[in-house]
Amino acid sequence: MLIFIISAITFLITNSSVPSLGPIRIEFIIFGLTLISVAIFHKHTMYVALSGLLLILVVKFIFDSDFSLIQHILGHGETEGEWRTLLNLLGLLFGFSILSRHFRDSSLPDKLPAILPNDWKGGFILLTMICILSSFLDNIAAALIGGAIAMVIYKGKVHIGFLAGIITASNAGGAPSVG
User: Which residues are registered as beta bridge partners of 21?
Assistant: First the structure.
């Protein structure tokens, strides 16, 4: 709440079209708070994400008189809209979700507990496998596959810290890859 009050005061002082906290516009602050809220309220991710999106849109409509959601998505004149990026992202997420489901249904994750050590080394080996997997697959695909494997291995009781480890391992493995 304090961030919004300080942001409103900065808005009144600077005569900017959109409020900011110093050089940081309020949309980025709301986005950061949405990410933190997703981590805290991880059982309600969709509602938190949609609430953050709605709040950003309300701020844009109230403070930015030039903002048009339709023009932002579809484009206008010489400006290309975001529809291609959104369509690409939707296709990637659906494709990766299908890929991770096929991997989970392949029964390979069911065989891994017999192969992996039954202590901290098993989790470390799994993270290493995800890191290697992401070197030739996309980072998101490797993270989804790794998450699906972890859900099977740990019988649905995967800690948020281990999920962060999966994401870190997939990013680390994909970092040196081209593309």
Answer: 24
